[in-house]
Design brief:
Layout lengths: L2 H7 L15 H11 L11 E6 L2 H19 L13 H18 L7 E8 L10 H5 L3 H13 L2 E3 L9 H8 L5 E3 L3 E5 L23
Antiparallel strand pairs: 1-2, 2-4, 2-5, 3-5
Length: 211
C-alpha cells in the first residue's frame, strides 16, 4: 500500500474481525515496535502496552465493554441515533450503530485485546495540560493501528470500557499510577473492500488565521 492508501483505508473493523483465527504474537510485537517510533513528550516514553490473549482475561474485559456499550446504546448520543433527520447521513449512522452493537457482544472473543496505558507519577492524573499528557501516548496507538493494517490485521479504536476503568485495572493487575487510554481489538479481517470514508468537505471545517 502507498502511504495515502494506508492512511485513508485504516478503518474501524468490527463485524469483519475474524474471531476464529489466532494472531501470532510476533505480528503484535512487530506492530508495537513500529508504534514505539511515535513521538513522546520530552522523550519520556511513559507508555505501557497490555496485550490480552488469555480467554478468561478477554472474557472479563469483554464483559465490562459490553456493559458500558449497552449503556451507551441506550443514550441519546449513540452513533446509531445521530442525524436521524438527515437521509444522507442516517443510513451511515445506522450501519455504524449496528457494528458497534455487534462488537459489544463479541469483544471478549476477539483474539487480541490491546490496552495502551500511560504511567504517571501518582495515582491521580495531573491537573492542567491533559492534551499534552495524552499526546505522549495516542499517536503511538494510531501508529499501532496503521502497522496492524499493513500486516493484514484489523483494529478499532474503542474507549467505552473506561466507564469501568477501575474494574478493568483490577482484572489486569495495573498499578494505581497506570492509566488506560483505549481498548483496541485486533484480529485478522475478512474481505478486502476497505475504502476512504465519506467526510465533510474540508472547506466546511477549515479556518485560516482565525475562526
Amino acid at each position: 500500500m502507498t502511504p495515502e492508501e494506508l492512511l485513508t483505508t485504516t478503518r474501524a473493523v468490527r463485524k469483519r474481525l475474524d474471531l476464529s483465527r489466532p494472531v501470532p504474537s510476533e505480528l503484535i510485537e512487530k506492530a508495537l515496535t513500529i508504534a514505539l517510533q511515535a513521538p513522546s513528550g520530552s522523550n519520556r516514553e511513559h507508555w505501557h502496552w497490555v496485550v490480552v490473549t488469555d480467554p478468561d482475561q478477554r472474557a472479563a474485559i469483554g464483559s465490562l465493554y459490553r456493559r458500558a456499550t449497552h449503556e451507551y446504546m441506550a443514550s441519546s448520543g449513540f452513533a446509531g441515533k445521530l442525524y436521524a433527520d438527515d437521509p444522507s447521513r442516517a443510513a451511515v449512522q445506522h450501519r455504524v450503530g449496528s457494528s458497534v452493537s455487534y462488537l459489544a457482544d463479541r469483544m471478549g472473543e476477539v483474539p487480541v485485546l490491546l490496552i495502551p496505558c500511560l504511567e504517571t507519577s501518582s495515582a491521580e492524573l495531573p491537573a492542567g495540560n491533559q492534551a499534552g499528557m495524552w499526546a505522549s501516548l495516542l499517536p503511538a496507538v494510531w501508529n499501532y493501528m496503521l502497522a496492524a493494517r499493513s500486516l493484514g490485521l484489523g483494529t478499532a479504536w474503542t474507549t467505552l470500557h473506561l466507564a469501568y476503568e477501575e474494574e478493568a485495572a483490577e482484572v489486569l493487575g495495573l498499578p494505581e499510577n497506570v492509566h488506560q487510554a483505549a481498548l483496541i481489538p485486533t484480529a485478522y479481517y475478512t474481505g478486502e473492500t476497505f475504502k476512504p470514508a465519506v467526510r465533510q468537505p474540508l472547506a466546511s471545517v477549515l479556518h485560516v488565521d482565525r475562526w
